[in-house]
Amino acid sequence: MPGFISKKSLLYIAFAFVIYLFFLFITVPANLVINKLIPAKVAKLVKYQTISGSIWNGQANDLTIRQIPLGQLKWQLSVLPLLWGTADLQLNAQRENTVLISNASLSTGEMQLQDTRIEMPVADLMPLLYGFPISLDGKINAFFKNVELTPKQLLVVEGRAVVSDIQLIAPQALSLGTLVATFAKQDNGTRMTLKDQQGPVQIDAVITLLETGFYTVNATLTPRNSADQAIKNTLVMLGKKDNQGRYTVNTRGRLPLKF
After folding, report:
1. CA–CA separation, 140 vs 161, rounded Å?
2. Beta strands, E only, the chain
3. N or C: which end of the chain has fewer CB within 10 A?
4. How far apart are CA 69 and CA 137, in angstroms?
5. 3-class DSSP state of 68
6. Distance CA 143, CA 161 (A)
7. Which value, in Å, is the radius of gyration of the alpha carbons in the chain?
């Protein structure tokens, strides 16, 4: 019959239309999509100058998260995991003295970061310690096998971080050497152990971080013979030392995790 379109032809047309929509979607500029996807509360904490590329392969320039500068962030989004409701991204952030490389997976309000490598100055993390009467510097070199979080909770951190050439800038300039932090999963959060590497102060600390962001710190600090008088005078501010020359620090607080 003239004008009749067969079912086979309709299938070809439908398939071609789907392919057209797919390529139209993947070539949509990232800035048109991301600006609409980021919730208002998150947008207050995530800042960037420009976004370029597509949502599948793009970059954000001069990125900061909670005032922590990350520089240029590039991402690649995998297609197949989207079919079962998961967004898998390869992330690579670079700026002077800073590297962040991670495999991120987002689904149902949770984010998982795997095989995350971080190199950055300690000073860049000081916004997380807002309100602390100290200023620190040094170099962080970390590898986290697994990090799980939601917009309101930090669920799990597993990995290791080395903080080298730590400098207390304020209230007094002091050199503290190198610290090693080990992160392990526990029932309701993460347990971090912190030890020095034969620096001027022997440091043994256990920090427990709960899923809700509350943390407790239990630490002992003991000046070694190599510690100069300025370090010893600073430790006196922590209180009285015990019979073994150790100063004890026990404190608690909450990290600003909520968006």
Report:
1. 7
2. 46-47, 50-53, 57-65, 68-77, 87-95, 98-107, 110-121, 135-149, 154-170, 174-186, 189-196, 201-210, 214-223, 247-254
3. N
4. 15
5. strand
6. 6
7. 24
Torsion of CA 2, 8, 14, 18, to 10 degrees: -150
DSSP H or E run through 231: helix 229-236
> Residue 35 carries which side chain, given as an amino acid letter?
N
pLDDT in tens, 4-40: 566 666 666 676 666 656 665 666 666 666 666 565 6
* Ranges of each domain in the chain: 10-108, 126-140+159-259
Q: Is 104 helix (H, G, I), strand (E, B) or coil?
A: strand
Q: Which fold has domain 126-140+159-259?
A: Lipocalin (2.40.128)
Which one, of 248, 182, 199, lies nearest residue 221 by Cα?
Answer: 248
Q: Is the dihedral of CA 145, 146, 151, 154 positive or negative?
A: negative
**Whole-number Å distance between alpha carbons of 172 and 4:** 86
